């Protein structure tokens, strides 16, 4: 087991210890000062800082390997969010191999995707978003090493109240439960040469491949969904150096013919003869 994996497990253990101490202190009226309960959580975040700074993790743009060129995982008109072209780590953390991750949302035309609501509706059904159900394609000839699609697709988190719930409650619980609850339904492809492609937040029951399958570039793998730690139906795509997000380091990528679109940049992914229209 890698040092990063052990650190991740220790981090979750310390978080659980914190919750246990808080509950025990409230229920049993223990004699020690209440602020001692926060010692495990302080140690947990100190561990994260130590691992990221001195763990020998080549996550920064300067230390990373050259970008791996792959085909785009979608077809049609999409918009990029949380792009590594704008900042690294793109999602504000190196955790789960997300250093160079990108989110993309389908927008067949401007305004086709529902806007963020100030008050109402608090949440929307997935069918309101054009990304929901869109086919996701293999970015290269590869082997499927992970494939799971049993988690439900939840409603959107595209209002202040829903987003607050996601950030303060749901995301914390998912983090405690592990990477599978963060990425939701997902596929991991072994591209060779130490690079693995992760497709996250897939639609429940949409997988067309199984672990061990060989796939060709452009082959449909699953459909876009809204499972896991997700605000709306979208594809979270990243390359990493191991199939396990708990111990992975991010690997930079570039999409053939597109590059790496910037935040809020719309791009058109071409359709090939092996891709669905």
UniProtKB/TrEMBL annotation:
<dbReference type="InterPro" id="IPR011055">
    <property type="entry name" value="Dup_hybrid_motif"/>
</dbReference>
<dbReference type="GO" id="GO:0004222">
    <property type="term" value="F:metalloendopeptidase activity"/>
</dbReference>
<keyword id="KW-0472">Membrane</keyword>
<dbReference type="InterPro" id="IPR016047">
    <property type="entry name" value="M23ase_b-sheet_dom"/>
</dbReference>
<dbReference type="InterPro" id="IPR050570">
    <property type="entry name" value="Cell_wall_metabolism_enzyme"/>
</dbReference>
<protein>
    <submittedName>
        <fullName>Peptidase M23</fullName>
    </submittedName>
</protein>
<keyword id="KW-1133">Transmembrane helix</keyword>
<keyword id="KW-0812">Transmembrane</keyword>
<dbReference type="Pfam" id="PF01551">
    <property type="entry name" value="Peptidase_M23"/>
</dbReference>
<feature type="domain" description="M23ase beta-sheet core">
    <location>
        <begin position="180"/>
        <end position="241"/>
    </location>
</feature>
<feature type="transmembrane region" description="Helical">
    <location>
        <begin position="9"/>
        <end position="28"/>
    </location>
</feature>
<feature type="transmembrane region" description="Helical">
    <location>
        <begin position="34"/>
        <end position="55"/>
    </location>
</feature>
